[in-house]
Amino acid sequence: LLYSDYLDAANALGWYCGPDFHSVHVLREFARTQIDYILGMNPHNMSYVVGYGDRYPKHVHHRGASIPKTVKKLSCKQGWKWRDTERQDPNTIVGAMVAGPNENDFFQDIRSNYNFTEPSLPGNAGLAAALIALTGESRGGLM
Asked: For the Glycoside hydrolase family domain, which residue ranges apply (predicted)?
């Protein structure tokens, strides 16, 4: 989306990638499909943003999600007790995007497998920027 904004600012209609021309519209639509995928239009019909929609990860690899609020102070090692449980998160960290599926669309909602269920600052910052860019368009909203 950022690149399409740069193209707009330069009054460019698009860009060439090898012999193929990609318009600004095509770039934006591709970005929209990626956001739609993250929000649930994927083979699992599952949102990878915690708390969004009916199906989302419930075993997030995050101390704030997995350790009950009643627990006041823990060492790092004491946190393993909750990380390794199969129970759903006692706390929903609404809005956190998890790492998501692998390149074959395989996903496991298992807290101990951070490759699928860990939220990250860079990933969530990119999601926020993309959502802002898409909702700022006058041509329509998401999904």
From this structure: 6-131
Instruction: Give me the pLDDT at residue 141, please.
Output: 46
Residue 137: predicted pLDDT: 57
HSE-CB at 56 with a 13 A cutoff on CA atoms is 21
> Catalytic: 84?
no
Is 61 part of the annotated catalytic residue set?
yes
The domain limits of the chain are 2-135
Residue 9 pLDDT exceeds 90: no
pTM for the whole structure: 0.83
